[in-house]
Amino acid sequence: MSTEIRNWDVVAKALEAAGHTSSEMYIRAAALAQGKLDPMPTSHPEAPYSISAVAG
Question: Fewest Cβ atoms closer than 10 Å to its Cβ: which of 6, 12, 25, 46?
């Protein structure tokens, strides 16, 4: 398991414990923790690339 997937798993579990399973962050964290594609790859429609993709 990669570090990134492990980190998303920690986030998903923390949000589950706090009862925030309907939040967009939980939906994203749960998907990424399962190795699925990011359901929200951009933060805004006018920003077609994620910050990490253009920061490199």
Answer: 46
Tell me how far apart the alpha carbons of residues 23 and 48 are, in angstroms, rounded to a whole number: 22
Instruction: Determine the pLDDT at residue 51.
Output: 47
- Give the pTM: 0.70
* Residue 51: alpha-carbon gap to chain centroid: 14
Q: 22 and 1 in contact (C-beta within 8 Å)? A: no
Domain count within the chain: 1
Check if the beta carbon of residue 11 is closer than 8 Å to that of residue 24: no
* Domain range for 45: 3-55
